[in-house]
Amino acid sequence: MSFLVLTYENAGWTQSTIKGGKRSSSATSYLAPKFAERPNLHVLTNTRVTRVIQTGTHNGCRVFKGVEFTDDRRGGSGPRKTVTATKEVILSGGAIGTPHILQHSGIGDPALLAKVGVTPLVSLPSVGQNFTDHPFVANTWLVNSTDTFETALRNATLMEEQIREWNETRMGPYAASTFNVAGWLRLPDDATIFDDFEDPSAGPNTAHYEFIIANGATRLPVPATGNFMVIGTVIVTPLSHSDFDIFAMREAIRASRRFAQAPIFSDYVISLQDTSVTDDELDAFIRGAAITVSHAVGTAAMSPKGATYGVVDPDLRVKTVVGLRVVDSSVIVSWFLLSLMVC
Q1: Interstrand relation of 89-91 and 324-326 (parallel, antiparallel or unpaired)
Q2: How many whole angstroms separate alpha carbon 9 and alpha carbon 60?
Q3: Which of 10, 21, 55, 254 is a Cys-bridge partner for 65, taking CB atoms 3.0 to 4.6 Å apart?
Q4: How far apart are alpha carbons 295 and 242 in whole angstroms?
């Protein structure tokens, strides 16, 4: 899914990376059968990488061109095997998997590694730090409709028909994404939170929060009766460690409620299901309902060459070592920019 609404106070249809009724992703684009059959590509399934291994030194730096792995079907407890790269190793474990592998390899904060029994080899205290993700809250309204997700979830015959439609034609609800409308909005310039925090957005024309609108309930468990509309509120400039996120989420929720009171919804929206009003009530609701949109970043963050912080340099090479790069979302420093091609 690609969100291409680039300025604040805009809304529109989401543009999705779908081909032939199926999601197009890095897996289907690079690891589909016709690509996986290339003679220079070998894909090991049911395999877990446990460490990268030092294979030597170069100009006083440790060289990591070895990869240790095991059979994942045995819960990682099977015998270890290793392979050695001729040029370099590219680590793509994601914002959780990458720092996990680096730390198990002795690359990270020496004090932390020693505390858990891992021999420190390379001092990079930023490994595993700076984890950031978009907080998401599903705001739910009961609506005057039977054409929402819940109808098929409660009707096995209808669900079977929809699945058959997709299998035969690659059309219908299973050929679309959950959210098909998005909007980007900013907090007011005079919002009180800016008395204590510098504006974390990328600039005056970029959003602080997002609406993603769904034709049905998305918060589990789905109610046994009724049909629903959801306006998901997402913080797109999260700090993930401060009061800014909770303030921005409160204001986003209030903005979603104002949006749902527009005259166009008067014959459609019946009632709001989440009735918290005060700041304290909204804070409690947010802490009970918030999840993320699984866009984790920052745990192997990029920094300038020569900087004493960060994990990789602008060429994605792991700092102070040779033969090892990281190419995944963990290198992204923060979500201060809008989300493009991440869903």
Answers
A1: parallel
A2: 53
A3: 55
A4: 19
Q: What token pair was written down for 96? A: 């959780």
236 touches 339 (CB < 8 A): yes
Specify the DSSP element, H or E, that contains 169: helix 156-169
Series of mean pLDDT values for 10-residue runs along the chain (343 residues): 47 84 83 83 90 97 97 83 97 97 98 97 97 93 94 93 96 88 92 93 89 90 92 91 90 96 96 94 95 92 95 98 97 65 43
Torsion of Cα atoms, 115 then 292 then 204 then 14, to 10°: 140
Q: Is residue 260 helix, strand or coil?
A: helix
Amino acid present at 10: N
**Closest residue by Cα to residue 289 from 150, 179, 182, 136:** 136
Q: Tabulate helix, strand, coil % of the chain (nearest 5).
A: 25, 25, 45
SS (H, E, C) 97-117: HHHHHHHHCCEECHHHHHHCC
> What's the pLDDT tens digit per position in 297-333?
999 999 999 999 999 999 999 999 999 999 999 999 8
Sign of the dihedral defined by the CA atoms of residues 36, 42, 46, 48, in that order: negative
Token couple for 250: 């409160």
Please name the amino acid found at residue 38.
Answer: R
Within 10 Å of residue 132's Cβ, how many Cβ atoms?
A: 21
What the block records as the tokens of 150 is 């819940």
Q: How far apart are CA 188 and CA 149, in angstroms?
A: 34
Residues forming beta bridges with residue 81, ordered by sequence position: 69
Calculate ∠ Cα 116-119-122, nearest 5°. Answer: 115
Which regions of 72-221 does DSSP assign to beta strands (E)?
A: 81-84, 89-91, 107-108, 122-123, 135-143, 179-185, 209-214
Q: Which residues have C-beta within 8 Å of that of residue 17, sequence separation ≥ 6?
A: 1, 2, 23, 24, 25, 341
